[in-house]
Amino acid sequence: MILQYLRTFCTVARTGSFTRAAEELGYAQSSVTTQIQKLEQEYGTVLFERFGRRMRLTHSGETLLGYATEMIRLQQESKEALATEASGTLTIGTIESLAAYFLPPLLQAFQARYPRMNLQLKPGLEPGVIQSVKDGDCDIGLILDVPFADPDLHVETVQPVELMITAQPGHRLAGLREVQYADLEQESLILTEEGCTYRALLLQGLQAAGVSYRLTCEFGSLEAIKHCVSQGLGVALLPQMAVQAELESGKLIARPLTGQPDFLVQLIRHKKKWLSEPLQEMLGILVESK
């Protein structure tokens, strides 16, 4: 309250009039008079004296004006500092492929805006990510799946992702423009771990097409999968973003798998989640990445 009175005091000092100060501040003149009287009671001195129609500062008023100006400046500075230097922890649940190949540049953009915010990534399989958002253990989640819906969650599509059959250069599939499930007959497969959405998509598609295959190995690590593919141990279904560097360097080849539903990066948050300013900023960065 004292800062409000000091702002009124500074305005009267600048305009030289209770009436003009009231008009500028949107107060009744009686309110301005009351605020100045309360300041005079607080400091135990007279702050203004009247010269004709103009109010002039007393010696005490001139002294207070310097302090009041600085107090108001510091209060504004502190507001700006808190707005730009918010601190705390923002927890994001997501799957490994998005944590490694999608999020890093977006997290960098967020940290440039909020350098004192701590970002905590909780990688896991999609069911765990969804549950952690519903339980409030994560502020938001990012999943990679067919269009998802849940009555407790707000879901927003960020961008589509193409899933690619990835193989060693020189593999027979390199001669195809796209891969059909039938092309994988008796192929050696390197799979992601159980619970991965695109692993389930591949196996369901192969079963529906009546295609036989050989399971070479399965890993929870995409880097391990890519290394095994490059060594010719088998082929794998991976998001294009996860193999883009290897495609550009020629270490791997990749072809789109036909007959698959749309796979989307989707942003999820609880419908009752309070949206702090930093969280709103993160949501904006993610949505703008479309």
Descriptive report:
Helix content is 46%, strand content 24%. It is an alpha/beta fold. The protein folds into 3 domains: 2-84, Orthogonal Bundle (Arc Repressor Mutant, subunit A), CATH 1.10.10; 88-160 and 264-288, 3-Layer(aba) Sandwich (D-Maltodextrin-Binding Protein, domain 2); 163-256, Periplasmic binding protein-like II (D-Maltodextrin-Binding Protein, domain 2, 3-Layer(aba) Sandwich), CATH 3.40.190. Helix 1 (2-15) crosses helix 2, helix 1 crosses helix 3 and helix 2 packs across helix 3 (29-43).
Task: Give me some keywords for this one.
D-Maltodextrin-Binding Protein, domain 2; 3-stranded antiparallel β-sheet; 5-stranded mixed β-sheet; Arc Repressor Mutant, subunit A; alpha/beta; 3 domains; 24% strand; 12 strands; 290 residues
